[in-house]
Amino acid sequence: VQLVESGGGLVQAGGSLRLSCVASGTIFSIRAMGWYRQAPGKQRELVARISSGGNTNYADSMKDRFTISRDNAKNTMYLQMNSLKPEDTAVYYCNAEGTEYFGSPFVSWGQGTQVTVSS
Q1: CA distances from 85 to 10, 47, 73, 116 (A)
Q2: What is the pLDDT of residues 6-25, one digit of tens each?
Q3: Rounded CA gap, 52 and 17, in Å?
Q4: What are the backbone dihedrals phi and psi of residue 12, each rounded to the nearest 5 degrees, phi first?
């Protein structure tokens, strides 16, 4: 299963970006998808996750500014990021967990998309 992120870029503080993640391959079902981020010199951290039923959870520092959503029919997940801050600068990674054809479970990561917020 392959994940491809898009939508990153350079934005001024206070601006917005919308990230997308498309999953493809031998997918039978996707149980959960999530966004994680990793800033230089820091560990990868959870941004937000969403279940197949639409239940969401967010990191506390982002829940009032970011919105995660998904289109199950398109195997696509989104992250709307508003009121961006310089400390949001990081590589954002897409993650998905589910089941492939013939019942094999999978956990996949995308290659990441860079988000840079200038002050």
Answers
A1: 12, 14, 32, 9
A2: 999 999 999 999 999 999 99
A3: 23
A4: -80, 155
